[in-house]
User: What shape does this take?
Amino acid sequence: MMEKVIDVSYFQKDLNYDTAVANGVKGVIVKISEGTSIEETWWGHVSECETRDLPWGVYCYSHATTPEEAEDEANEVLYLLGQRVPPMGVWFDFESQECLTANDPTAVCSAFVSKINAAGIPCGIYASLSTLEDTIDVNALDYYVPYWVAQYSGHCDFEDEFPGHVLAGWQYSDQNHIGNTNVDMNEWYLDLN
Assistant: This one.
């Protein structure tokens, strides 16, 4: 089943969640951290979601260049979550220049995902399709790892290029608006319940 999902951060701190729900939003993925630094608005976004029974997940915008740095970022996410398990899981946002030029990007991704999974929380990778094609060796990672793919076009080509791997969501635009707030828009394929 396909659902409308948005991702939010400080830049959407004034988002009207009632308007979002009225516009068909069924889930929200919230920026929780950047590297090992807290995203100050994450808890406000999650509270808005919980008030409306909206499923939510979190993402870490990574700056990791080594598996050890990725584990440090994962530890920060786990610390911030405390005992909470995000219904939509944790996502490793792999797009910063540091990440893209790491010596072994696949090992960096694997370290973060493994650390979060070891805590009993589902974890996936957010990246552009071109990063998955050219930088991360998708086939070297376990087939159960889900992907949230950014490809701003009329179709997501992930499943064609990586058959057997899990496409969780497709970010197809960064130019949508809910009220006066600009949001990234996603189609979500995993069950939100």
